[in-house]
Amino acid sequence: MAISEIGSDRHRPRTPEVPARRRTVSWPKMPGRDSLATGVKAVAGILGLFVVWELLVIVFDPPEFLLVGPISAIQELIERPEYFASNTFVTLQEALAGFALGTALGVLCGAALHYSATIRSFLYPALVAIDTIPKVALAPLFIVWFGFGFESKAFVAMAIAFFPLVINTYDGLSSVPHELQELARINKASAWKKMTKIELIYAVPSIFSGAKISISLAVGGAVVGEFIAGSKGLGYVILLANSQVDLPSMFAAFIVLAAIALALFFLVDFAGRKLVPWKNHAK
């Protein structure tokens, strides 16, 4: 009996042994690694642009009253740091003030468009019509109203930064899924709780997307105001350099303006990542 069992075991097919799976350990991502990589890539891209710009100037050798390279512009910054720093501070103040005003008014106006159909039917077409007007044409009007000082430039920056926040706030408040709206209605949630617990959560990422656009536009708006009536600021530096055919100073001001806009953009983006963590987790 035992022999037959042994013989049968010899002819019985053996199932192949399945190797045990190796457990893989997924290490958590280092905080800030993605932001650091993005910053390195941005810096590399800017440096590459400067290299191409300088090579074009070296190869084609245009006259200095037509084009200069980034090296000449950076040398101008090094030779007159106080001059550019003081004018940069003025433009930065005007841009931040205009951005703050544009953000506050844009969010309030976008919320009004969402919560009131009457306001939306009358105000939305008017806002679109006003936004089509070139802001350079509105700058003299602000100067007549607020004078030649700081306020007129801040309001020009506000007028340019205002519209993206209106649209993004309205779209964000309108993007709440229908299921959540029905759930709030079934639970008899008040209008305040519905706004703070549901709609605002969906709107904040969209508001920050609009803010990233508006902060760069606010810098340009401040410069537009300085073009019209400015005695200081980077816009005034550009106008003065243009009248004197001083291209190194002009391009130096361009570089500083681009650096300000880029730094403010990444600052708003960083604030959005910190204040809206659920958007990153959703990705």
Which key terms come to mind for this protein?
single chain, 283 residues, mainly alpha, 80% helix, globular, disordered N terminus
By DSSP (H or I, 4+ residues per run), the number of helices equals: 12
What percentage of the residues does DSSP assign to strands (E)?
Answer: under 5%
Q: Looking at the structure, what is the overall shape? A: globular
Uncertain ranges: 1-9, 23-31
Taking all Cα atoms into account, the compactness measure Rg is 29 Å
Helicity range:
over 70%
Number of strand segments: 0
Structural class: mainly alpha
N-end to C-end Cα span: 66 Å
Topology:
Blueprint: H1 2-11, H2 33-60, H3 70-79, H4 81-115, H5 117-131, H6 135-146, H7 150-173, H8 178-186, H9 191-229, H10 234-243, H11 247-275, H12 277-282
Helix pairs in contact: 3-11, 4-5, 4-7, 4-9, 4-10, 6-7, 6-9, 7-9, 9-10, 9-11, 10-11
Description:
Helix content is 80%, strand content 0%. The protein is globular and about 70 Å long. It contains twelve helices and no strands. With 283 residues, it is mainly alpha-helical.
Outline:
By secondary structure, the protein is mostly helical. Helices cover 80% and strands 0% of the residues.
